[in-house]
């Protein structure tokens, strides 16, 4: 039989194990879940772009003290108006929420460059902006697209799932 490690070695291993937890948990909140953009585009250097930058900055700044917020920016004309919101997972600290929102906004800028609307979901937070109000409006956009050929048994399972969901909507 091999001897068991001494007590100090156990404590060192335990300490090292817990010291890496913040790194793992922070990277988990950054995991990309989905993103989508509207097809409508705005002109670079326009009033809309200025308003969008202001909106996204407000979302990031607000996330340092609140896990949810929404903003409306009224433009000089109706087509320059913007609506945006963010929400962090309830178990995130304010610093982690702010980090998640900042990363989501950065990714959203790359994903939806020059588009009038976009949404991005990371594991820890959600950000959305659009040129029309969406608060209180049901979102029917498809956020999951399956690639590849269908397999016969999947169609049957999907039919059963749809029947159950249909019964819930009654």
List keywords for this structure.
43% helix; Killer Toxin P4, Chain A; five-stranded antiparallel beta sheet; alpha+beta
Characterize the structure shown.
- Residues 10-25 have low confidence and may be disordered.
- The protein has five helices and five strands; from the N terminus they run H-H-E-H-E-E-H-E-E-H.
- It has a domain at 21-137: 2-Layer Sandwich (Killer Toxin P4, Chain A), CATH 3.30.430.20.
- The protein has helices at 7-19, 21-29, 47-62, 94-111, 152-168; strands at 32-37, 68-73, 82-88, 118-122, 125-130.
- Helix 3 (47-62) runs antiparallel to helix 4.
- The protein is α+β, with helices and mostly antiparallel strands and 170 residues long.
- A five-stranded antiparallel beta sheet has the order 1-4-5-3-2, with helices on one face.
């Amino acid at each position: 039989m091999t001897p068991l490690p001494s007590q100090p070695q156990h404590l060192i291993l335990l300490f090292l194990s817990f010291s890496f937890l913040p790194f793992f948990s922070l990277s988990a909140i950054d995991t990309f879940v989905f993103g989508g953009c509207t097809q409508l585009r705005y002109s670079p250097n326009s009033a809309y772009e200025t308003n969008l930058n202001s909106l996204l900055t407000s979302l990031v700044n607000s996330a340092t003290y609140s896990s949810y917020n929404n903003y409306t920016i009224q433009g000089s004309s109706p087509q320059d108006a913007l609506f945006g919101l963010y929400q962090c997972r309830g178990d995130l600290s304010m610093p982690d929420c702010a980090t998640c929102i900042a990363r989501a906004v950065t990714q959203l800028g790359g994903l939806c460059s020059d588009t009038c609307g976009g949404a991005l979901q990371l594991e820890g937070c959600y950000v959305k902006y659009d040129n029309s109000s969406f608060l209180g409006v049901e979102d029917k956009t498809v956020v999951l697209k399956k690639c590849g050929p269908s397999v016969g048994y999947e169609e049957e399972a999907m039919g059963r799932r749809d029947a159950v969901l249909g019964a819930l909507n009654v």
